[in-house]
Amino acid sequence: MSKMTKIAAAGALAAASWIEAQAPPPKAPPTSEETRLISSLEGAELYQSYCAVCHGKEARGDGPMAGTIKTPPPDLTRIAARNRGMFPLQRVQQIISGESGVNAHGTREMPLWGPIFSQVAWDQDLGRVRVYNLAKYLEKIQRH
Fold first, then answer.
1. d(Cα 49, Cα 83) in Å, to the nearest integer?
2. What is the DSSP string of 63-128?
3. What is the dihedral sign for C-alpha 35, 38, 43, 44?
4. What pLDDT digit, counting tens, does each position of 25-47 carry?
5. What is the DSSP letter of 35?
């Protein structure tokens, strides 16, 4: 091995060690107070796990917690009807993720699911997939 090759190899090793030392520590597992992710990415299962408690099993705003919050949860099966028959998929995704404000969203009454859905699992951030699948599920259950 030539002297130049040895110097280059030593430099690469030093750079790799420095980069590794700069990496953030591994993310700690969520505490019992944090919302845990379910393993499914399916919209219906996400809805039942995260939304049904307020919006109801059938998404009509009549979940078991609905009466305990200041702003009554809306009937999510009528989103299209309230928007001239068109389901606003992008807007619904923005509301779920917290990118677009709705008065009741973002409070303890209606958590923003975007940050929760983006908790890293298996070295992947599947938050956008969860938000999209949940929005598509809501689109599927619309009543006209």
1. 26
2. -TTGGGSSSPPP-GGGTTGGGTT---HHHHHHHHHTSS--TTBTSSSB--HHHHHT--BTTB--HH
3. negative
4. 544 444 444 557 788 899 999 99
5. P
With respect to residue 17, please indicate whether it lies within any of the assigned structural domains: no
Structure tokens at 62: 């009549």
CA quadruple 90, 92, 96, 102: dihedral positive or negative?
positive
Residue 133 belongs to a domain with what CATH number?
1.10.760
Quote the CA–CA distance of 38 and 79 in Å, as a whole number.
26
**pTM for this prediction:** 0.67
Give CA separation, 37 vs 40, 54, 60, 120, in Å: 8, 18, 24, 10
Any domain includes 22: no
CA angle, 44 as apex, 90 and 143 as ends, to 5°?
A: 65
